[in-house]
Design a protein that fits this description.
By secondary structure, this protein is an alpha/beta fold. It is built from nine helices and eleven strands.
């Protein structure tokens, strides 16, 4: 299958490599650019733990030149990929909640206590859900530091536009609501709405699929779990079904 990957770099290239290993062709069209803010204010308190909901937050923390965030503190991540990025970046302890914000909240509340000190939530300028509010309602002192922002692309890449225009793309991978919003705008700017029926939009969650309403004549497929493995499994299932249809013909 010929698939367009819309997530930011470096994740876009990682996803592309995973698709290529499975025999697909990947077209890169990152719809967001991640910009770190090395001057984001962090008080440098005696945090009992650091909380992150993306690999971008981990990279932004590591890129700082100050010592406000020590890597000896426990780090709690929303998913396995983010926890792995933290471990590779030198954080001594990185715990994964398995992939969803509600899971992360449950993990934090089950393993941490408000009396043990404040939490640092390293986040992007746009956040899905209200982690800070949920933790404060449970009695935690939590400081939010906006350590990066995601800037949307104005257009799809030229190769992606050409593939959609010529009906040679089989699908588009969308990993976040903001990427989906930027993709929808890019498709509209290119005059490609509605996308043709042969293009399937593969979304990480229902929230990611929301901005895509009316954008395509094709299918919108939501992964049963919010992670790349689950999303690619949907693509593999579609590819297998297409192969069987071809054999029957």
């Amino acid at each position: 299958m010929r698939l367009i990957v819309t997530r930011p770099e470096p994740e876009a290239s990682r996803t592309a490599r995973a698709l290529i290993r499975l025999g697909h062709e990947a077209i890169l069209s990152p719809m967001l650019t991640i910009v770190h803010d090395p001057k984001a204010a962090i008080a440098g308190r005696d945090y009992q733990a650091i909380v992150v909901t993306s690999t971008n937050a981990v990279r932004a923390l590591v890129a700082r030149s100050d010592a406000a965030v020590g890597r000896s503190r426990p780090l709690y991540a929303v998913g396995d990929r983010t926890a792995l990025e933290a471990k590779r970046s030198g954080f001594a302890t990185a715990r994964s909640a398995g992939g969803a914000l509600d899971d992360l909240l449950r993990l934090l509340k089950s393993e941490l206590a408000p009396a043990d000190g404040p939490l640092l939530y390293a986040a992007g300028s746009d956040q899905a859900g209200d982690l800070t509010g949920a933790m404060r309602s449970s009695g935690f002192d939590i400081e939010t530091a906006i350590v990066y922002r995601a800037e949307p692309a104005k257009r799809l890449s030229g190769v992606a536009e050409d593939a959609l225009r010529s009906d040679t793309a089989d699908g588009v991978l969308l990993f976040s609501q903001r990427s989906a919003e930027a993709f929808a705008r890019g498709v509209q700017v290119a005059g490609l709405v509605p996308l043709k029926a042969g293009v399937t939009l593969y979304c990480l969650s229902d929230a990611v699929a929301e901005p895509l309403s009316g954008l395509t004549k094709g299918s919108v497929v939501v992964a049963p779990a919010p992670n790349q493995i689950s999303l690619i499994a949907q693509i593999e299932s579609a590819a297998e079904g297409s192969s069987h249809d071809g054999q029957r013909r």
